[in-house]
Amino acid sequence: MPVTYHRSGATGVITIDNPPVNATSQAVRAGLIEAARAFAADESARAAVILCAGRTWVAGADISEFGKPPQDPSLPDVIAAIEALPKPVVAAIHGTALGGGLELALGCHARIAAPGTRMGLPEVTLGLLPGAGGTQRLPRLIGLMPALEMITSARQMGTAEARDLGLIDAVASDDLTDAALQMAERLAGQPPRRTCDLPAPPADPTATETLTADLARKLPGQIAQRAAVDAATEGLALPFAQGMEVERAAFRALMDSPQRAALIHAFFAERAVAHLPQIKGVDPRPLDRIGVIGGGTMGAGIAAACLLAGLDVTLIERDAAAADTARATVAKLLEGAVTRGKLAAPARDAILTDAFRTATDYAALSDADLIIEAVFETMEVKHQVFAELDRVAKPGAVLATNTSYLDVNAIAAATSRPADVIGLHFFSPAHVMRLLEVVVADRTAPEVTATGFALAKRLKKIAVRAGVCDGFIGNRILSHYRAAVDAMVLDGASPYQVDRALTGFGFAMGPYAVSDLAGLDIGWMTRQRKAATRHPRDRVPVFADRLYELGRLGRKSGRGYYLYDGGKPQPDPELEPLLAQVRADLGIAPRDFTDAQIVERTMAALVNEAVRTVADGTALRPLDVDVVMLNGYGFPRWRGGPMHWADAQGLPQILAQIDALSAEDDHFWQAAPLLRDLVAQGRRLAELNEGPKP
Ligand code: 3H9
């Protein structure tokens, strides 16, 4: 029974117990209706408390039910039944009160929260709006604009702010259940204070228009935020019951939208990546003392990420001066966390004195549980580092490389303990980016893989398992679709048009703006590295080499594809003549591309290579690719990731595009055999997320 009713003195106690997060599944909704009836019929009970077992109050509606036929009773009906009770009901909140969970609390007649409780309406992150009264009750309780801000930002609020805004009535100073029972006793005999009876706040057209304009600018293409504002404002102009109907209709419309399907796919995919059969039931190794080798951008970022997660870090640099620089870089990153309110200044000081050390001798790593190297990207240097680690690391220490493309099997071969070696590919800035590719080499032990995933969890990052290959999942796919994009520029497209077309599709940044950010030297070095193995028919972006040779390295030199003079990046009038010269040198007659063609070719190349990574096991499932592209490469979340997008688009259409393009270049445009097989079998990529591969 996920919901029970019992009495404590003169107070009825309704307990929800539906692990892991007390989501309002059909059984919980039906149980709540039953419990509300039992309380109403219990003449000895003068008030009631609703509380939750386990680690949290209700974290929302049961997302796994979305997209399936709805089952009665609906959550709005359950909340209405509780709100209509003739005796007061107190919500005793702890953990996270999110979405339908917060809406349930809003339907209670009073709210008390344990310290540390977080409250929010995250529905827009799932492509929905609060559909159980959130758009109608929250503004009545805390005011129109605070409510709209909370709904459209999906921001979670702490108890102090919630108390100030009137979202909760009290914060429990001691035991939450005792405090809630006392509150119920105080309210017993009083008429219930129903949120639905509070007057609707007056409309504020100016503030609402400013908010919707901001949303359109910041979240182009996304529909849920705007729909939430509209539903709230339209509904509040009507009596409560009609306002609820407006909300319901808008909720149902969003439930049917592709954006909802995409965002919920992203939600579950981000959780499914950690479910690996290889490490099921395998205990990770200890993970308290971390060693980092190299204090450059990546090493310092990794050290900061570990320190912010409460781990002890020793960072090795080659000499005292480099160690001092690394220490200053890490201190600066922690200072940034203080500025952003993520870390208190005294905690920062304690970290720098007690938890963080720099050293120049590898011997300082002798008691480290896990050591991550972030040194120069050549096999020779990696071999030296791993041979040294093999000498100093304690038995059982995990030895990790942060390489972004090198062969982890070859790196492991430099040690006498290849089972302990793994790739941990962080993304820059490492203390901010949530993605971590856990690169599992041929001989990596399962508990070492489990430790990589445990580290990600500790750092609040999303770990995705990747196999060994040049670029692993993300950089391998990137380099392929990047080749398609560069080919279009060689053939006549402007880099600015490409960036515009792809940001129009929803990418966070266009590929040429990304090049400028990363530095054009990075791409140049990659091309140098791959030159020896390049196929004669591979097309080389000669224009990128020319820019590099001119010292135009991107943002860091003030000039790359764009001009940077402090303000917004500006197109450079000298770029087009340079491109024209390159095309003339190569004998290419430039032609025009439409934005739609740019998107079509980029996505066809991206999907094709992504399917190959799944086919050869570099990515375990299509969903692993989606999580990588969403969290490391700025792919629009509301499109669910490239594999989800491809299914929604239709695999036959993508295959037809690739086949048509092969008439132009049958070297680059070769459909992945798995893509062809899936189309022939009438199957979707999503089917490969579960069960055996075809
Ligand atoms: C809504 O409420 C609509 C209403 O307005 C209207 C309705 C009419 N449902 O994240 P974790 C699973 S929309 C089903 O790893 P954490 C999750 O898949 C909803 N399952 O834990 C995972 O399963 P598994 C609004 C859910 O401690 C397990 O629980 N609410 C749900 O890092 C643990 O999850 C939200 O959007 C759910 N609602 O974080 C809140 N939530 O172990 C969504 C979780 O098999 N949830 N699961 O992989 C969260 O943000 C986080 O889960 C939470 C805990 C912060 C609660």
From TrEMBL:
Record GO biological process: fatty acid beta-oxidation
Cell compartments where the protein resides: Peroxisome
Pathway: Lipid metabolism; fatty acid beta-oxidation
Membrane-spanning ranges: none
Stretch forming the signal peptide: none
Keywords: Fatty acid metabolism, Isomerase, Lipid degradation, Lipid metabolism, Lyase, Multifunctional enzyme, NAD, Oxidoreductase, Peroxisome
Entry annotated with the keyword Oxidoreductase: yes
Domain (3-hydroxyacyl-CoA dehydrogenase C-terminal) ranges: 471-564, 598-683
Gene Ontology molecular-function annotations: (3S)-3-hydroxyacyl-CoA dehydrogenase (NAD+) activity; enoyl-CoA hydratase activity; isomerase activity; NAD+ binding
Keyword NAD among record annotations: yes
Catalyzed reactions: a (3S)-3-hydroxyacyl-CoA + NAD(+) = a 3-oxoacyl-CoA + NADH + H(+)
UniProt cross-references to InterPro entries, sorted A to Z: 3-OHacyl-CoA_DH_NAD-bd, 3HC_DH_C, 6-PGluconate_DH-like_C_sf, ClpP/crotonase-like_dom_sf, Enoyl-CoA_hyd/isom_CS, Enoyl-CoA_hydra/iso, NAD(P)-bd_dom_sf
Stated family: Belongs to the enoyl-CoA hydratase/isomerase family.
Protein name (database record): 3-hydroxyacyl-CoA dehydrogenase
Organism: Paracoccus gahaiensis
Source organism phylogeny: Bacteria, Pseudomonadati, Pseudomonadota, Alphaproteobacteria, Rhodobacterales
